[in-house]
Amino acid sequence: MLMEEDMEQKPCMFHDPLALQAAEKSLYDVIGEKYPPSPGQSSSFGDQFLVDSPENESSYSVGSDYGGSSGSNSGSSADVHWNREVGESKAPFMQENGTMSNGNGSGDGNGVVSSYAGNFVVPNFFSGSDLELQFKRGVEEANKFLPKFSPLVIDLESKNFTAGKKNHDREDDGFEDERSNKQSAVSVDETELSEMFDKLLVCNGRDEKPSCILHYEAPENEVKCSKQNGLANGSNGKKKSRAKKSQGNNNEAVDLRTLLILCAQSISSDDRRTANELLKQIRQHSSPFGDGSQRLAHCFANALEARLAGTGTQIYTALSAEKTSAADMLKAYQAYISACPFKKVAIIFANHSLMHATSSADVIHIVDLGILYGFQWPALIYRLSKRPGGPPKLRITGIELPQGGFRPAERVQETGRRLAKYCERHNVPFEYIAIAKKWENIRIDELKINKGEFVAVNCLFRCKNLLDETVVVSSPRDAVLRLVRQANPNMFMHAIVNGSYNAPFFVTRFREALFHFTALFDMLDANMGREDQMRMKFEKEFYGREVMNVIACEGSERVERPETYKQWQVRNRKAGMKQLPLDPLLMKKLKCKVRGKYHEDFVVDEDGEWLLQGWKGRIVYASSAWVPA
């Protein structure tokens, strides 16, 4: 009976003295009064009843095994919350009738319950209909003591986060209804994904040169839109680089960048009054729908406000927990690479280096650190299928961090199934190994490297999420690089986010993050329309989430920790790796394609053996190829 889901239709199930005692204690907690103990009451009797219930056992096992998934606990949490409401409604009714029937409690060891159990619960004077009527009246009385809002919207990390079953009026539209998180699996239309993959691989009449390998032709309307945006902003966006000054309603110029820095300094010195005043000014002149500087200010104001309120970790956790389907991610990815060459150039560099080195290999084993949705590999699979003499066998070990919930490896396994179907379509022998684990804890034998195969380790833009020696004495970054060296790969493709906002001091980190994201928001403003839904999605779910983590989180909870390419060069060499020289022909083609298809303020340059990418002179990404020394 306890496992039935229609318990709400059975109020008679709660006619138990133990349940009544727990309910009375819960009501006293709600109204802020201390539960009156009885002289003969045994210690923690009601608490023991709550802890030993089957619902709480289920919630505890989920939290201990899978990191406390909000989705998997929603059902039990909602039931516990409902039981509490039932108990609260019954307590006044029991007290009223118990006092009339027996004014003096017996004090037999059961506390408050014992004074009513003998004369009320056991004889059961009322019929079922009377009990239901009194029960409903008690619910109305108890609801007067409940708050009008749900504190669970704020306490996102609580185990009872999903207990908002009866709260339908959310004040914050950014949070989805928790009940939707009960879905344990996401259904993806594989046909739609295959078609979208092919759109990324549109060939211009020559099968041997897919578009994503240096022959991508942007749609005419996208190119035209990009050119118009560049010209409208004055000399291809040069005016936008000075867009930090926004016009307010009273036509006075407001330096949003200075206001943001002053607000960060006030928060750092715990001057909350000044910080709130500055935040108010920033809010007046910022908007998620304005120009680049206004969107940037809105994004950073959200992070500063969260840091001031101490809710940065909860908000970041909620943003990260939102599940996005592979189809939606692919659409956003398409829109992004149509406007910005950063990720595309990095993928072309890695795939070209791999194709050049594996021209005679029979088995290629790619260890992908941070495979995510695997958007990098359809282009390579297509090229391998066209190789003279037949395609080689492709083995991919996809590594990702575990997800919360019952299926920690669900995403990385879905990626493997998608890639397997794509390989089947193009007749490429394929084997996939999924690993959902913290990278620094992976052992070399888990990679399942075989003798005689070409081993390539690939990591694009994900090393920034590893903790460093400022947080953990044994640096996870160095541990992962040692694992790469231990695998003794034939090639290590490494692309990084070039950033300096990993300082332990808040104001210094804030300044560097502001400069870095100013370039990114300005880049999107010059290449995408303000009403573009994909742009708004990208700014909110990607840039906004990163800014929230950098500004509002500290310690091990701050996982956005980029370093400069010079710092990564030192780490890689320390791990026993050496760089490969850049291919001059590839560099020439990349520069030509970026100049011809993208905004002229995009930068493609080289420094030693590093391929550098940036916007208006600021280097944002860097790529290089390594081999064991």
Q: How would you characterize this protein structure?
A:
Belongs to the GRAS family. With about 625 residues, this protein is an alpha/beta fold. It folds into three domains: about 5-165, no CATH class; about 235-340 and about 500-560, no CATH class; about 340-500 and about 560-629, 3-Layer(aba) Sandwich (Rossmann fold), CATH 3.40.50.150. Helices cover about 45% and strands about 10% of the residues. It has 21 helices and eleven strands. The strands form two sheets. Strands 3, 4, 5, 6, 7, 8, 9, 10 and 11 form a nine-stranded mixed beta sheet that branches. It has a two-stranded antiparallel ribbon with strand order 1-2. β4, α16 (about 410-425) and β5 (about 430-435) form a beta-alpha-beta unit. α9 packs parallel to α11 (about 290-310) and α11 packs antiparallel against α18. The longest helix has 28 residues, at about 75-100. The relative contact order is 0.09. The model is unreliable at about 1-15, about 40-125, about 145-190, about 200-210, about 215-245 and about 245-250 (pLDDT under 50).
Helix content: 40-55%
Instruction: Give the structural class.
Output: alpha/beta
Describe the largest sheet. Answer: 9 strands, mixed
Q: Give the overall shape, derived from the CA principal axes.
A: globular
Q: From the coordinates shown, what is the CATH architecture of the largest domain?
A: 3-Layer(aba) Sandwich
Identify the CATH homologous superfamily of the largest domain. Answer: Vaccinia Virus protein VP39
Based on CA atoms alone, the radius of gyration comes out at: 30 Å
Number of helices: 21
Model regions low in confidence, pLDDT < 50 over at least 5 residues: 1-17, 38-126, 147-188, 201-211, 213-245, 247-251
The fold-level CATH name of the largest domain is Rossmann fold
Motif (VHIID): 364-368
Pfam families: GRAS
Family: Belongs to the GRAS family.
Region (SAW): 552-627
